[in-house]
Specification:
By secondary structure, the chain is mainly alpha-helical. It has a single domain, classed as Arp2/3 complex 21 kDa subunit ARPC3. The chain is built from 7 helices and 4 strands. Strand 1 and strand 2 form a beta hairpin. The longest helix is centred in the middle third of the chain and has 30 residues. The chain is globular and about 50 Å long. It is a multi-pass membrane protein. Its main location: membrane. It holds the Pfam family CbiM. Keywords: Cell membrane, Membrane, Transmembrane, Transmembrane helix, Transport.
Length: about 220
């Protein structure tokens, strides 16, 4: 989700911008040419998923798809998400320059965690693949909502006051999104494993069985 321009106070803008620049630099370090098509594809996925959004005060609700992006890209996730956010900012005025750092952090960090925490759990069982997808999709949304909430409250405590405050409305509005993204990501993970299992470090054996591989977290 996007935090709008002019919402965050100066200290929050400075801290999140510096942190985001550092995260993007870490993400871009050592990128190989063969990784670029995958990064570009995931950039398109995030860009498209975020086009339909519902404004809620200083932020908005829309599809993230960050769970599957994080599981596929790992440490390269911030590159993809930052590029998509830049395109959305200049083409559609989603988000803002001062909130760019916060938007990158709030979306990228939960997605990256799915690569290290959930992706290694994928096994040859269809149920395992679906459950891992559900966890990645839903937890990534929860992580982003928490990040946005912290960013807003740090800038203005008024965003968190009252039953119908901005923070509470964001939480209420993202409960169905968490469920939808979880189920959708579950089916996507199953589809990827059945069609191109190597994308998630799962390969077909000679007997047609799927076998999970040790995941290289540096990729």
């Amino acid at each position: 989700m996007h935090i709008s321009e002019g919402v965050l106070n100066t200290p929050t803008v400075v801290v999140t911008t510096i942190a985001a620049v550092g995260l993007i630099a870490y993400s871009a370090k050592g990128v190989k040419s063969e990784e670029i098509p995958k990064i570009a594809l995931m950039t398109g996925v995030f860009f498209t998923g975020s086009l339909i959004h519902i404004p809620i005060g200083p932020a908005s609700i829309h599809l993230l798809l960050s769970g599957i992006i994080g599981m596929i890209l790992g440490r390269r996730t911030p590159i993809s998400i930052s590029l998509a956010l830049i395109l959305q900012l200049f083409l559609f005025q989603f988000g803002g320059l001062t909130s760019f750092g916060a938007n990158v952090l709030n979306t990228s960090l939960p997605a990256m965690l799915m690569f290290w925490l959930v992706r290694p759990l994928i096994s040859e069982k269809k149920s395992s693949q679906f459950i891992c997808g559900v966890l990645a999709g839903s937890i990534a949304v929860v992580g982003t909502v928490l990040g946005v909430g912290i960013s807003l409250v740090e800038s203005n405590t008024q965003f968190g006051i009252g039953v119908f405050s901005t923070i509470h409305m964001l939480i209420y509005g993202h409960i169905p999104l968490m469920i939808i993204e979880g189920i959708f990501t579950g089916f996507v993970v199953q589809f990827i494993v059945s069609v191109r299992p190597q994308i998630l470090a799962v390969l077909q054996t000679d007997k047609g069985e799927v076998k999970p591989l040790t995941i290289n977290n540096n990729i």
